[in-house]
């Protein structure tokens, strides 16, 4: 592909080339690519890796300090300084995943409201320094469930696939199984007003004018509840198809929590 | 086996209560003690079970010990019972079982919650602690969202609609209008409820119960003691409880609550009755869709017909076979989480004795049911009461 043949991929702009991929946020301010309301270098990187996985097998990558290592590990990649593939973060909202030279090029994005972008960025900064007010998803709990949360790592018992993971079913412990396919059908949905959203979302929900959640039956059988990506333009509908992408969920106690969010297909 | 009766019951007004935990509990307990016709001293009580989520964390540990020492219940075994919004429905069941087992003759079951002395953000944090934290809360869900998902799916599967929920809201506000203990005593028109502020699409403000302060207290006694304490005991005909997967995504259906079905089946069986025998029911309408689902799960309406039941006004006071939420329900009376279950029992105790305001008295009430749900349906307690023993 040439740089003029970039595609929309998981809500981003991706340019697939012979020796790698360049992924840019689709959002721009005066032509400069900026992150969307729930994206960053890490989400662009895993998006690019998932696109490349259709073309080749990547087991390990070399990353720079802008990428959250735990997300890549949860998605099944190991981190190795001598790896064949290198993920490089650009100054703009852009990553290159390459076996050779850094992938560069111009691609047209879509202008995002500058005030909105600034408010969301400030909210993320404030949210990172927020302290939990009691019971919450601890770092340990978040990390222990991350391969299921970010890679659909599943279990099986007899012929049944299980997701999210369970400890025991009856008197049996389910076995680990292959990740589920990241596609499903909406069985129900809601849009929560800022006042109806959990406290973890209290800074960003008013700016986003609410957050949307879908109840999805995955094509492999299990059901799950997912946020819709923050920059989705379409309203969900029952029976509609969704795909998934890793995005920021929320931040707390200095740590950004990532997870799969639904994208309306 | 020994039969069990409710011999006394009392509660605080629900709403923004000026008193703290100790003061509210003492008021509820004192009211319950004074409702007993015969000679009664708190020192006669053998055990106490207090339902509370301990919302806000003000007294998270040893809640029951603190409260009971302020109501004359000294040096007896006490404990907090926690099952989210069903805490005191289960506290009552535990008290009932304590007497049934022969280990106690007189037991206090109660509940309490103080919810309105927190900042909005802290309140929102506590409102979300009873779902599946890791898989639902991370997906942005609190209970308005969870019940909104159930509502929209019910609309899709059975052709119900938001106007059906509006009928429930209007009915419960109408019932609660004359209830001196109710949090929201106001007449709400159909048009007003229809056009409420959207909280979690399709649920509006008028589909959601308020967050309330309140306490409730019920005194149970074994049959041989009950008759000495009152000439008008209300007998516990049946008590059932059930549970289900905590998260919606693990349930085979999100348009029915299995825990309610299990609990009511057990309770009806013990009481030797069916849904058609029930004259009034206090059901857990934390959201209007929850009442719609309960009318189906409790057997008052056929599967999928809860919307039609509401639309036709079949739960209105003295209009259909059963009156649903004559107190105003959680929607109007209020929902101080841990106090709600025993608060429902206070209502049916008075209804069956003909002691509520005449404007909301269920005529010729003989059998009443309470239905108390934890969270989005992970736990449920159903208790059935009658004027006569079994």
Question: How many beta-strand runs of chain A?
Answer: 18
- Report strand order across the widest sheet of chain A: 1-2-3-9-8-6-7
Strand content of chain B: 15-25%
Count up the domains of chain A: 2
Q: Please work out how many helical segments of chain B DSSP would assign.
A: 13
Distance between the termini of chain A: 23 Å
What is the CATH homologous superfamily assignment of the largest domain in chain B? Thiolase/Chalcone synthase
Q: Alpha-carbon distance between the termini of chain B?
A: 12 Å
Q: Supply the number of structural domains of chain B.
A: 2
How much of the polypeptide of chain A forms β-strand, as a percent range? 25-35%
The overall pLDDT of chain A, averaged over residues, is: 93
Residue stretches of chain B low in confidence (pLDDT < 50, at least 5 long) are none
Structural class of chain A: alpha+beta
Helix content of chain B: 25-40%
Q: Can you tell me the overall shape of chain A?
A: globular
Assembly category: heterodimer
CATH class of the largest domain in chain B: Alpha Beta
Polypeptide structure, described:
The complex is a heterodimer of chains A (265) and B (390). Chain A has 6 helices and 18 strands. The two termini of chain A are 23 Å apart. Chain A is 18% helix and 35% strand. In chain A, the strands form 4 sheets. In chain A, strands 1-2-3-9-8-6-7 form a 7-stranded mixed sheet. A 5-stranded antiparallel sheet of chain A has the order 16-15-14-17-18. Chain A is α+β, with helices and mostly antiparallel strands and 265 residues long. Chain A has 2 domains: 3-112, no CATH class; 139-149 and 181-264, OB fold (Dihydrolipoamide Acetyltransferase, E2P) (Beta Barrel), CATH 2.40.50.840. With 390 residues, chain B is α/β, with parallel strands linked by helices. Chain B folds into 2 domains: 4-118 and 212-235, 3-Layer(aba) Sandwich (Peroxisomal Thiolase, Chain A, domain 1); 132-211 and 238-386, Peroxisomal Thiolase, Chain A, domain 1 (3-Layer(aba) Sandwich), CATH 3.40.47.10. In chain B, strands 3-2-4-7-1-8-12-11-9-10 form a 10-stranded mixed sheet, sandwiched between helices. A two-stranded antiparallel sheet of chain B has the order 5-6. In chain B, strand 5 (198-200) and strand 6 form a beta hairpin. Chain B is globular and about 55 Å long. In chain B, 65% of the residues are buried. The model of chain B has no long low-confidence stretch (mean pLDDT 96). Chains A and B meet through strand 14, strand 15 and strand 16 of A and helix 4, helix 5 and strand 5 of B.
């Amino acid at each position: 592909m040439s740089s003029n043949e970039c595609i929309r991929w998981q809500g981003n702009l991706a340019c697939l080339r012979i020796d790698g991929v360049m992924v840019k946020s689709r959002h721009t301010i005066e032509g400069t690519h900026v992150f969307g309301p729930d994206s960053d270098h890490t989400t662009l990187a895993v998006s690019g890796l998932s696109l490349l996985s259709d073309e080749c097998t990547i087991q390990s990558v070399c990353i720079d300090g802008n990428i959250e290592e735990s997300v890549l590990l949860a998605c099944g990649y190991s981190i190795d300084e001598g790896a064949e593939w290198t993920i490089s973060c650009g100054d703009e909202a852009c990553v290159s995943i390459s076996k050779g030279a850094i992938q560069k090029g111009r691609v047209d994005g879509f202008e995002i409201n500058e005030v909105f972008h600034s408010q969301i960025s400030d909210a993320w900064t404030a949210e990172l320094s927020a302290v939990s007010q009691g019971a919450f998803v601890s770092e340990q709990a978040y990390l222990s469930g991350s391969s299921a949360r970010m890679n659909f790592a599943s279990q099986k018992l007899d012929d049944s696939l299980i997701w999210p993971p369970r400890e025991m079913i009856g008197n049996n412990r389910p076995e680990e199984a292959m990740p589920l396919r990241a596609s499903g059908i909406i069985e129900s949905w809601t849009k929560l007003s800022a006042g109806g959203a959990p406290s973890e979302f209290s800074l960003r929900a008013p700016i986003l004018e609410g957050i949307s959640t879908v109840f999805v039956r995955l094509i492999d059988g299990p059901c799950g509840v997912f946020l819709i990506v923050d920059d989705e333009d379409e309203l969900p509908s029952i029976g509609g198809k969704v795909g998934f992408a890793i995005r920021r969920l929320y931040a707390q106690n200095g740590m950004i929590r990532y997870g799969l969010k639904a994208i309306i297909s | 086996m020994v039969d069990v009766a409710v011999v006394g019951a009392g509660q605080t007004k629900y709403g923004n209560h000026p008193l703290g935990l100790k003061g509210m509990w003492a008021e509820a307990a004192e009211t319950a003690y004074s409702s007993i016709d015969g000679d009664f001293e708190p020192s006669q009580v053998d055990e106490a079970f207090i339902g509370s989520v301990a919302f806000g964390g003000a007294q998270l540990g040893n809640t029951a010990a603190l409260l009971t020492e302020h109501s004359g219940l000294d040096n007896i075994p006490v404990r907090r019972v926690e099952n989210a919004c069903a805490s005191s429905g289960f506290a009552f069941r535990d008290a009932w079982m304590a007497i049934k087992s022969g280990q106690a003759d007189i037991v206090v079951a109660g509940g309490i919650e103080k919810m309105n002395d927190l900042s909005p953000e802290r309140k929102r944090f506590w409102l979300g602690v009873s779902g599946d934290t890791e898989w639902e809360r991370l997906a942005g869900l609190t209970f308005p969202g969870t019940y909104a998902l159930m509502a929209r799916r019910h609309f899709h599967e059975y052709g119900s609609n938001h106007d059906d929920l509006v009928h429930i809201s209007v009915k419960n506000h109408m019932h609660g209008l004359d209830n001196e203990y109710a949090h929201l005593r106001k007449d709400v028109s159909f048009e007003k409820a229809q056009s409420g502020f959207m909280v979690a699409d399709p649920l509006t403000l008028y589909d959601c119960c308020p967050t309330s302060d309140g306490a409730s207290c019920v005194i149970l006694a074994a049959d041989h003691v009950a008759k000495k304490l009152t000439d008008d005991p209300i007998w516990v005909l049946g008590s059932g409880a059930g549970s289900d997967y905590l998260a919606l995504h693990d349930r085979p259906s999100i348009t029915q609550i299995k825990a309610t079905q299990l609990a009511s089946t057990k309770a009806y069986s013990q009481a030797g009755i069916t849904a058609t025998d029930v004259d009034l029911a206090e059901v857990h309408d934390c959201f209007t869709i929850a009442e719609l689902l309960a009318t189906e799960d409790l057997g008052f309406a056929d599967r999928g017909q809860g919307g039609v039941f509401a639309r036709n006004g079949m739960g209105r006071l003295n209009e259909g076979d059963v009156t649903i939420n004559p107190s105003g329900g959680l929607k109007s009376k209020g929902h101080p989480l841990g106090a709600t279950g025993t608060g429902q029992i206070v209502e049916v105790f008075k209804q069956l004795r003909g002691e509520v305001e005449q404007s909301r008295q269920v005529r010729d009430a003989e059998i009443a049911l309470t239905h108390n749900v934890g969270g989005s349906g992970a736990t449920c307690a159903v208790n059935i009461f009658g004027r006569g023993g079994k």
